[in-house]
Task: inverse folding
């Protein structure tokens, strides 16, 4: 499970609003936030705020400002990352190749751009209707 620490910003009756600040870019080295990934992440996206569903018992036992650990299943993360990158690239290449075969270089450029847009829309459509979509929702670890 991929985990990160979060701070509770707001408590609802059956969900929590949390704020996540990445502690590192990738977490795989001792450089932590001093590496390029960590610096860019901190500069471009310093905090992430989202709502997490929780049971009412847990919502009553926490308060604003408390720290908690949230996580996402690694398998769901890999599936969604592959979908996010692989589908648009494949449709981009197909659009560019088809455009080139039919009309030449300029159509290849347009076909690639159109393929990239269609691929991104296909990913959005598939991820909303995926049986694994709930697996990618962050869960409270502790």
Result:
């Amino acid at each position: 499970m991929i985990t990160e620490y979060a701070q509770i910003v707001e408590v609802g009756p059956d969900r929590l609003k949390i704020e996540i600040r990445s502690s590192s870019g990738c977490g795989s080295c001792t450089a932590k936030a001093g590496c390029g990934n960590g610096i860019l992440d901190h500069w471009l996206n310093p905090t992430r705020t989202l709502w997490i569903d929780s049971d009412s018992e847990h919502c009553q036992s926490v308060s604003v400002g408390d720290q908690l650990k949230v996580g996402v299943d690694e398998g769901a993360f890999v599936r969604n990352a592959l979908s996010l990158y692989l589908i648009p690239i494949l449709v981009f290449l197909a659009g560019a190749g088809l455009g080139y075969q039919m009309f030449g270089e300029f159509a290849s450029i347009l076909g690639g751009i159109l393929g990239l847009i269609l691929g991104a829309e296909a990913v959005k459509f598939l991820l909303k209707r995926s049986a694994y979509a709930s697996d990618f929702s962050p869960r409270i670890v502790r």
About this structure: Residues 23 and 31 are 11 Å apart (CA to CA).
